[in-house]
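Two folds, back to back.
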Amino acid sequence: MLLLVDEVQSCLSARRAGLLDRLVVRVHAAKLDHDLAEGASPDITEALALRAQMLVRPSMRRDLAGSLEEILALAMEASIWPHLPVAPCCDRVRDAAEEFHLLIDRLCSPGPVPAQGVARTSVLLSDGAGPLYHRGNRDDLRARVRDAAEALDPLATW
């Protein structure tokens, strides 16, 4: 069930998401994740509401945490990653290990979390031009991981 803000009538509206809705959300997941990560309210559109519901599911959170754990473990081994089309910057991952552990712990914590934090994690992992994978990107990986972890705090106010 989707609950959306109807700004015209200043009320909430509810409707069940259909198969086509879910397909559209999967096709546009990267854009929706980016919008949610940047602070878009999941109550604005059906697509954002449905994507936010998908992101906060325990199974999605576990999958993202597992990806982070794998990246962290392999970076600590200083392995060469010949099987990956885009390898993470292992030195940056090692430098951000404490933040990675905090993010993994928050993703695996019981109870609800804000969709924004899960979306930030998804964007971090999927952005091939971001600081996790692209050496030329000057963003601070530690700060990006810390921001994602902080956005997972259910008590945070945005």
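---
second:
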Amino acid sequence: MHHRSGRGAGGRKGAELARINTTAWLLTLCGLGGAGEGCHRDVEQDRQAGERAGYRIARNGPRVEAEVVPVLTARYGWALASADGRWVRCDAPLEGDARLAGKK
């Protein structure tokens, strides 16, 4: 499982930990985060590309809810992850960059 927003070296606690452990904040990716091969490693090694595709949501900056940041999926194209575990197809974000979701 991949957390779209990193847990940080010191970890997160309380309500914030519960928030990032919900369905919309977790993605199933192949491979391992720090070693080996696969998508998980690729997202961890190129964080900018991961953010553009919606696999990562930056911890710094304004607070964003995962349900409004689209993810570029192999199955659905651009889609939003819902809190109940469903994927809902959506339009591509501005310039194909999930970091620009909701901007006009």
